[in-house]
Amino acid sequence: MKIGLLFGSFNPVHIGHLIIANYMANHTELDKVWLVVSPQNPFKKLGDLINTYDRLEMARLATDNSENISVSDVELKMPQPSYTIDTLTLLKEKYPEHEFALIMGSDNLISLPKWKNYKLILRDYRVFVYPRPGYENADLANHPSVTITMTPLMELSATFIRKSIAAKKNVQYFVPDPVLKFIENKNLYR
C-alpha cells in the first residue's frame, strides 16, 4: 500500500489540512494518507503550541469518519526534535509492507535542502507537493522524486484560526465540528 505522510503540528487541525489529505488520497497514486502529529518542528519555536496529546486528539476527531485518512503518533515516541528522515526510517522498519511518500507544501520544498539528510529523502522516497501562495518556484520541482500536484490552493492557516479564537471570532467551517467542540470544551487558544 502507498501511504502519504502529511507531517504537521496540527495546532489545530483544520479543513485545509483535510482537503490536502483528501486530495492526495483520492487524486494521486497514494492509497492512504497519515497525518503525522509532530511534537515539535525543528525549524519552529514552541511558542503557542498546545499540548501534543490535545493536538493528536483533534486530528483523530477530524479523521474519525475517513476511509483513507488516519492519524499517526509515531513521532511522539521518538527523541525530540524528530527529523523526517528518522521518522521515515522507523516507519519503513515497522511497516515493511508499505511504501511511504512525503506530502509537503511548495514552501517546504524550497527549504528541503536545509533538512537533515534531504538527499537521502529524495533518493529513497517520493515527494508529493501541494501549492502554497507565493512559493511557486522551487529548485527541486523538476527532481524525478518530486510530483507537483493540482491540490486546491488553500490560504487557511492554524495561526489565523488561533488568532481568531483568541479574538473571540467564529471559526465554524474552518475546523471540523468535533474539533471545534473539543477546542471550546477545553477552552483552547483563548
UniProtKB/TrEMBL annotation:
<dbReference type="Pfam" id="PF01467">
    <property type="entry name" value="CTP_transf_like"/>
</dbReference>
<dbReference type="InterPro" id="IPR014729">
    <property type="entry name" value="Rossmann-like_a/b/a_fold"/>
</dbReference>
<dbReference type="GO" id="GO:0009435">
    <property type="term" value="P:NAD+ biosynthetic process"/>
</dbReference>
<comment type="pathway">
    <text>Cofactor biosynthesis; NAD(+) biosynthesis; deamido-NAD(+) from nicotinate D-ribonucleotide: step 1/1.</text>
</comment>
<keyword id="KW-0547">Nucleotide-binding</keyword>
<dbReference type="InterPro" id="IPR005248">
    <property type="entry name" value="NadD/NMNAT"/>
</dbReference>
<keyword id="KW-0067">ATP-binding</keyword>
<dbReference type="GO" id="GO:0004515">
    <property type="term" value="F:nicotinate-nucleotide adenylyltransferase activity"/>
</dbReference>
<keyword id="KW-0662">Pyridine nucleotide biosynthesis</keyword>
<keyword id="KW-0548">Nucleotidyltransferase</keyword>
<keyword id="KW-0520">NAD</keyword>
<comment type="similarity">
    <text>Belongs to the NadD family.</text>
</comment>
<dbReference type="InterPro" id="IPR004821">
    <property type="entry name" value="Cyt_trans-like"/>
</dbReference>
<dbReference type="GO" id="GO:0005524">
    <property type="term" value="F:ATP binding"/>
</dbReference>
<comment type="function">
    <text>Catalyzes the reversible adenylation of nicotinate mononucleotide (NaMN) to nicotinic acid adenine dinucleotide (NaAD).</text>
</comment>
<feature type="domain" description="Cytidyltransferase-like">
    <location>
        <begin position="6"/>
        <end position="163"/>
    </location>
</feature>
<protein>
    <recommendedName>
        <fullName>Probable nicotinate-nucleotide adenylyltransferase</fullName>
        <ecNumber>2.7.7.18</ecNumber>
    </recommendedName>
</protein>
<keyword id="KW-0808">Transferase</keyword>
